[in-house]
From TrEMBL:
Residues 13-73 form the HTH tetR-type domain. This is Transcriptional regulator, tetr family. InterPro entries: Homeodomain-like_sf, HTH-type_TetR-like_transc_reg, HTH_TetR, Tet_transcr_reg_TetR-rel_C_sf, TetR_C_27. It comes from hydrocarbon metagenome. Keywords: DNA-binding. PROSITE patterns: HTH_TETR_2.
């Protein structure tokens, strides 16, 4: 690749990343539906039509953001799980990574409760494949516990489905009550504590008592 083409490629990726970061800020504050391409373009300092050089549509931009964050969370889990000493610890690590406001290990985004709930519903309705992938990953972890004898034999897929549905319901319940402008660290911590307590209850039902 010539130096000119390399610079052009680097500039393209840098501008694309700027657009995504601006979109994240607006969506996290206003929600998906109230965020416009005009808002994003103004923040980046380009014309609205220029965004179409990088993304086909607002939906395409949102899709890339969601997939990127999801992939980063899975990578974070894989790294964190190396420190887990048991399968139940892996389950807790997996769920805490999924609900965390952080991704790429340290990058954190501030999000309003209303935007969080709206985005969650959009993902539930339009990104069923992501939920299915998450369920499959969790059921794989549970089956690992069954194979090692940590858990008794049971329907791992059904347990994974129940855990994820409860996790989603808990997020919506906790964040719908908040009066803060953004989801706070203490609210996030409370959610995580309740989630861990729930997993401990699940564990008492599926552990292999010898």
């Amino acid at each position: 690749m010539s130096p000119e083409l390399k610079r052009s490629s680097e500039n393209y990726e840098q501008k694309k990343e700027q657009i995504k970061e601006a979109a994240k800020d607006f969506i996290a504050y206003y929600g998906y539906h109230k965020t416009t391409l005009d808002d994003i373009a103004n923040k980046v300092g380009i014309k609205k039509n220029s965004i179409y050089y990088y993304f086909k549509s607002k939906e395409d931009l949102f899709n890339e953001i969601i997939i990127e964050i999801y992939a980063a969370k899975i990578t974070d889990y894989e790294k964190a799980s190396l420190k887990s000493k048991s399968t139940i610890d892996k389950i807790k690590t997996f769920l805490l990574t999924i609900v965390s406001q952080k991704y790429k290990e340290s990058k954190q985004y501030k999000i309003t409760p209303g935007a969080f709930i709206e985005i969650g519903r959009i993902i539930e309705e339009s990104y069923k494949e992501l939920f299915e992938n998450t369920r499959l990953l969790l059921s794989t972890i549970i089956r690992e516990g069954i194979s090692t004898g940590e858990f008794r034999k049971h329907d791992a897929e059904e347990t994974a489905k129940i855990i994820l549905e409860f996790t989603q319901a808990l997020e919506f319940f906790e964040y719908s009550k908040t009066t803060s402008k953004f989801i706070t660290e203490s609210e996030q911590k409370k959610l995580e504590e309740r989630l861990v307590n729930f997993i401990d209850l699940i564990y008492t039902g599926i552990q292999n008592v010898k």
